[in-house]
Specification:
The protein is an all-alpha fold. It has helices spanning 3-20, 22-32, 67-85, 96-113, 116-121, 127-138, 154-169, 171-178, 187-193, 206-230, 235-246, 264-277, 281-288, 294-297, 299-319, 327-342, 357-369, 382-400, 417-442, 448-459, 480-494, 498-503; strands spanning 409-410, 413-414. A two-stranded antiparallel sheet has the order 1-2. Helix 6 crosses helix 7, helix 7 packs across helix 8 (171-178) and helix 20 (448-459) runs parallel beside helix 21. It starts with a helix and ends in an 11-residue tail after the last helix.
Length: 514
């Protein structure tokens, strides 16, 4: 392994994280009075002197008092990251094992150190809770231990949502986009971080493709902010919800999420961008290359669209007359919650934990399924569900025709057996992780619905389940031990198991380049 290159890459990541905290520092200074009045940026919320007892570090900017926490965090990250980035590797080659090590340790370091502002500001006084909130942000899970988010200072609110946005496409992909030395061998970083099918087809132009994908990501975010501003949403609120939507993370600065706006227009804007960001981003790349038929010919996109349409109408028929008085209202809320669930954004306009059992089961299936591969969504991914169904169908046909040789095809092309076996193994590991985590959390003695859906919501990076972790609840009441299990599930789910599993295996650390 190229240990020096790993250390240097991790140092660069910490420098990037330090730079990413600067906007949050500026926001904290604006709302703290350090840069003048907030003006039209948004409505004020309760500060650190609220009855909720949120403490804080006094000093810079006064007011809400979170600015010093960001200053200290930025200085610490810059010092440590700068020292690590100065390490000179003998060679800049990055092997497959190096890529997995950079991804695994990179996500862990950035998530843990990203908790510093929460802890130093006193907004989240418990170290475990602070790390939980940070990992939930970076992994775009959206699970929270904070019951009253409107009592948080603006800088902290901005940071927890901006962490979503950084983790949406992955900050290692961001590093590839801005790193001048990014070249073909850095595909191992992209392969280890990117969910779904491997990105080897981008090898010759990996830095250019990374820049294009991030360009699309920025454009979608900017477009949503504009649309929300046109709907009368304050700039601060528009930024928070655009970060949460395009990353499919779901953090909000409102206690009742999107429902707080009481606006059909805002719901439709957020719903449209959740839908767009659950699509495989390589299809947008194909559109830029004028391949306009890419969407129609993509099986995963057709499955994704059909699942949304089918689930929305099923839920509308099931909730009409029970949860909602009119079919139009049932269909409106059904579409929003279905799209929020399958994209694992988990924004809410209604409490689906109060829906009929059939509708709740549909929502749980969507959570397990997840969005498209190479999107910002979580879950198993639609393409894996498609392949698992096709593998099962082939095995059943083999029982009837034992000597038949049938290839599993996706988009008209035969899928390699190695890929198919990888999908089956991933599914097994995914289910095994859910089982083990559920058993560990169940030791706390909570009800089975809250326990199981909390684990499912964490590993699928969805953030909401049923019972105490419904979209109107929180994870605050779990024990420290359970929170550690759940934050590990979020970490494992975002990295899709393999990087974390490989780093824990002794054979991974042997001196063999693969």
């Amino acid at each position: 392994m190229n240990h020096r290159m790993i250390i240097r890459s991790l140092g660069l990541l910490l420098l990037i994280e330090a730079a990413c905290m600067l906007p949050a520092l500026i926001v904290s200074l604006i709302y703290g009075g350090g840069l003048g009045s907030p003006g039209g940026l948004g409505d004020g919320v309760a500060g650190l002197g609220s009855p909720d007892g949120l403490g804080g570090v006094g000093g810079l900017g006064g007011g809400e008092g979170d600015a010093p926490a960001f200053v200290l965090s930025i200085l610490a990250l810059a010092a440590v990251g700068g020292a690590m980035a100065r390490v000179r590797p003998k060679t800049t080659n990055i092997y497959a094992k190096d890529g997995f090590a950079i991804v695994g340790f990179g996500w862990l370091l950035m998530s843990v150190l990203g908790a510093a502002p929460f802890l130093l500001s006193g907004a989240v006084p418990s170290p475990v809770d602070a790390v939980f909130e940070s990992i939930s942000g970076f992994s775009t899970t959206g699970a929270s231990i904070i019951k009253n988010v409107e009592a948080l200072p603006h800088g902290i609110l901005f940071w927890r949502s901006f962490a979503h946005w950084i983790g949406g496409l992955g900050f290692l992909l961001l590093m590839l986009a801005i790193l001048p030395t990014a070249r073909a061998n850095t595909v191992h970083i992209m392969k280890a971080e990117s969910p779904g099918p491997a990105p080897e087809k981008f090898v010759p132009q990996i830095r250019r493709v990374a820049k294009i994908l991030y360009g699309i990501y920025v454009a979608l975010t900017f477009a949503e902010v504009i649309f929300l501003l046109c709907g009368g949403v304050p700039l601060f609120d528009a930024l928070i919800h655009a970060f949460g939507t395009t990353s499919t993370g779901g953090f909000s600065n409102k206690n009742f999420s999107i429902g707080s706006f009481h606006s059909v227009y805002v719901e439709n804007v957020v719903m449209a961008f959740m839908l767009l960001c659950g699509v495989n981003f390589t299809l947008y790349h194909a559109l830029l290359r004028r391949n306009f038929s890419a969407f129609l010919h993509d099986e995963e996109f057709r499955f994704y669209a059909l699942a949304i349409l089918t689930a929305s109408f099923l839920i509308a028929f099931n909730t009409f007359g029970q949860a909602f008085a009119s079919f139009g209202e049932a269909l409106r809320h059904g579409f929003f919650q279905v799209i929020a669930q399958i994209t694992t954004t988990a924004y809410a306009t209604a409490d689906f934990s109060k829906w009929p059992t059939f509708s709740k089961c549909v929502m749980l299936f969507l959570m397990l399924c997840g969005a498209s591969a190479s999107s910002t969504g979580g879950g198993l991914k639609c393409v894996r569900v498609i392949l698992l169904v096709k593998i099962a169908r082939r095995e059943v046909e083999r029982l009837i025709h034992p000597r038949s040789v049938r290839a599993v095809k996706l988009n008209g092309k035969a899928v390699e057996e190695e890929t198919l076996s990888g999908v089956v193994v991933f599914f097994f590991l995914y289910v095994a992780t859910i089982v083990v985590a559920t058993l560990l959390v169940s030791a706390e003695g909570r009800d089975i619905v809250s326990t199981w859906t909390a684990v499912l919501a964490s590993i699928s990076n969805n953030g909401t389940g049923l019972g105490m972790v419904s979209n109107m609840g929180s994870f605050a009441d779990f024990s420290v031990a359970s929170k550690i299990v759940l934050l590990v599930c979020m970490f494992v789910g975002r990295l899709e198991i393999y990087p974390v599993l490989l780093l824990s295996m002794p054979t991974f650390w042997r001196r063999v380049n693969i």
